[in-house]
## 1
Amino acid sequence: MATLSAAQRRQEAKREYDAYVASCPSRKLLDRLSDKWVSLVLSALADGPQRYSDLARTIAGVSQKMLTQTLRTMERDGLVSRRVTPTVPVRVDYELTPLGWTLMPLMYAVKEWAEVHMEEVEAARAAYDADL
Amino acid sequence: MATLSAAQRRQEAKREYDAYVASCPSRKLLDRLSDKWVSLVLSALADGPQRYSDLARTIAGVSQKMLTQTLRTMERDGLVSRRVTPTVPVRVDYELTPLGWTLMPLMYAVKEWAEVHMEEVEAARAAYDADL
DNA sequence: CGGAATCCAGGGTGATACTG
DNA sequence: CAGTATCACCCTGGATTCCG
């Protein structure tokens, strides 16, 4: 990459984890981050702590199962924290951990990119399909 | 083309894409970008044009089918371009399009994040599992 | 309200074999 | 070398039901 200096490339080469290697834990982590719900949950929590039901409403179309499953995995990975308020009925809030906050901007940027460049992608698809 | 409803015309005029809405095209685009191979292909092409076999070697563990399928979709979406050199045997090079170059740094950052924060994630997992 | 558990259909995925 | 084709399987992910 042109934006990387030779020194940076050397440093990268020495890095312990390499996502290009299938057996590397970071590759599996990248696979997990490449879950379609993770980016949406992270982006949704950018506004601050939110209740389970708030997340379900913001992220339209997510099933209870997938939302819960995604939040559990993200909690286990240290990206979000779960706070239970033992009222009746129960209230559960999720918020980003410090680690989660370091990842959120990156995923948010991808989500933004998808929204901003949607037209160009659709134009490219139309052009591609026309050449068949 | 069929007559657009008032709501459709408003959306058309404002070009508002919201990835939180399940039916929004940008959501489907985000789902596609959330493919585990897309981020690796984009990152691999950050070094410049590469041959099919180079990509297959760099991205360890990808099957021919998935690599080809991923490249086809990315080509259709205008993220990569495909150049065939009709030698014998055939040589095929892939490179990022200008549109692909705008997305690459974002996905590359996510891949980097996974490598850099791997240890913290593993520590979080260990802590989570210990509390069961 | 915020889950857990179960069932189950569908398709995404990989292995394999073949081709220009 | 760079695919295409076929098949079988697993696992995702939705629907439903029940619980604290």
## 2
Amino acid sequence: MSKCEQCIIRQLNSIKHLSREELVKMTNCKTSRVVKKGEAIFEEGERLKGIFCIKEGVCKVSKMSENGRNQIISLVTRGDLLGERSLISDEASNLKAVALNDMQVCFIPKEEILKDLSKNPNFTMSVLKDMAQTLKQADNVIVDMAQKTVKQRLAETLLKLLDKFGTNAENTIDIHLSREDIANIIGTATESAIRLLSDFKKKKIIEFKGKDISILDRNELDKIAQGF
Amino acid sequence: MSKCEQCIIRQLNSIKHLSREELVKMTNCKTSRVVKKGEAIFEEGERLKGIFCIKEGVCKVSKMSENGRNQIISLVTRGDLLGERSLISDEASNLKAVALNDMQVCFIPKEEILKDLSKNPNFTMSVLKDMAQTLKQADNVIVDMAQKTVKQRLAETLLKLLDKFGTNAENTIDIHLSREDIANIIGTATESAIRLLSDFKKKKIIEFKGKDISILDRNELDKIAQGF
DNA sequence: CGGTATCTTGATTGGTATCAACTTAAGTGG
DNA sequence: CCACTTAAGTTGATACCAATCAAGATACCG
């Protein structure tokens, strides 16, 4: 079993504030797990027994709306923690997490995390800061959803994806999302997203390589996102 | 100066987890302030030097969108804390808070709160729980904004307002919001909100007493909110 | 009492959802 | 290797919803 003390991923999140001693304990109680593309890490309504630390891969975190459509709330990647909130508020998860590609995640049992939270103020403060940050972003998303058009949101989403995942050898955004996934991020019907993507392509703002998207005119996307 | 130890409001939020000693210190450094209706407690972009504890009254917390419209993110009332997030993430506030009626608020300096956070795990944990809860609600709002129609959102908002503020002697929702405020909560143009309110009135789901709203058929609003 | 803000309604335009049909891509089993 | 199945992507036509502009009504305030 690989040791948390030696894990590089740890440096990327709040776990970096744990002491050597705490890390040793964590190594002893954590379990590793491989999650295949498309597989769920947890379901909406499930009671989580711990949190997940993403070692490799990306997953979409989503929530079902009352009308039966799926809304993707965030994309969680290498170095992120997943499930702290449900654990802290001690409620069933309100979200579902599904792997977008093959993943490696570590599972850390609830008791261990709660113990660390109660004994290590630096750790707690770090989690608190993360959460404050997430909340701020959530506010921004609310404003965008409430006041921007689908076209603006699509442009913005493409830019965010580019910044978060960068580009691969073919110059396409280095994460494969289906058209439906994209629609579920911006909160629209799949056909609408497709139509707008198609518009962007005609205007040479983006192009397709296979199904993947390559951004040609970042500047123009910026303008569209801001409403021109 | 009134004493935090004896303040009833304290029981309503995380401050209840502070020790007697900590409360005495807080009494000595806090300041009280009256905020008139329409006045701002703080502005977007302002660097807060502490947090606010709402003793009396209600304020709207909002954010300007890039297209120049105002989105109300939440309504903060008696017993709530305000400004913890900016303080924790140590950034300028991303939000603006404006009084909806005359308010009494206490201001607690940053240093005092940070000291309590670093020394009292119960307090920190309580703040953390609050924030996890807020984040969960934010997720719900995102889904609603992304996927519900304006009509659904209006119905939902009316129900939430009713639950949060109750009714007064005239059986109207016990908080006065302008039509514009309502529109800014549901994220639509003022005229659209007015039109839909007018529809609801015609269908005898609500009625107006002056400008205030009285809910006649809660059941019907529930149905509309869920998409029928 | 005039001026201003808020509220209200109508007409028009544009954006988005929905339904339906078709294409392409990716398996799967004979 | 081909025929079949299924999922994903694409496009057009239509109808509905909501934003915007314009104009009038009502309440509020100095």
